[in-house]
Write the structure tokens for this entry.
Amino acid sequence: MTDLSVPVLPGGLPDKRQVAASFSRAAASYDSVAELQRAVGQQLLSRLPEGWGPSRWLDLGCGTGHFSRVLGQRFAGSQGLALDIAQGMLEHARPLGGAEYFIAGDAERLPLQAASCELVFSSLAVQWCGDFAAVLGEARRVLQPGGVLAFASLCVGTLHELRDSWGQVDGQVHVNRFREFERYRQLCAASGLQVRGLEKVAHVLHYPDVRSLTHELKALGAHNLNPGRPGGLTGRARIAGLIEAYEGFRQTKGLPATYQVVYGVLEKPQ
């Protein structure tokens, strides 16, 4: 039997200290290139129960606070908490408002009291957590009975064009690893929360060239953070090989970059 508390990921996920540092450095540039993040967050918002308004919500992995501000407007009169592991993101978000409190913290060990929130909203953050079972357990702990966890994450198949192109150049790790969708299904089913919705949706962005894609990933702080990634600068010959391989994916709109997004809505039983 598989231990559902341990993520099955070859090579493991990035060290969270590196994740925090990378996203802190990207705080100033993040919003300028966050097309996917905005689209996914809006899709996640559309999955919340209609006509429902929490009195206290948590934006888990708030980043620059864009959706903290959206939640604050949508649920006017409620109390908002915005939490992120990256101090640089919090420093960027805090002056822009949207939430009453901006908190440095880890999704796997939330610094919040039990049954203190009615909504935990998390868009494109928990893919960086090595122990997703702990994330679900913490969400269950801090939610009130009847409260909702709504999350969007990434799964296997994300950036497969970039991964496959690098695979033609060398055998090293160049693209971030993510869980399989089936793993999300298993962990959600075992969480003690009621699964109201869980699906995988492909979002495809297009770029004029490879440099535009890699520049965006760096500006987002989401460039290669994997253990085992190659160190130092990448040589010109390998970059040329990457460009040549990626050109094989070109479409009318440009070079595609596919993100496999997992949308989940779970409810804490009454």
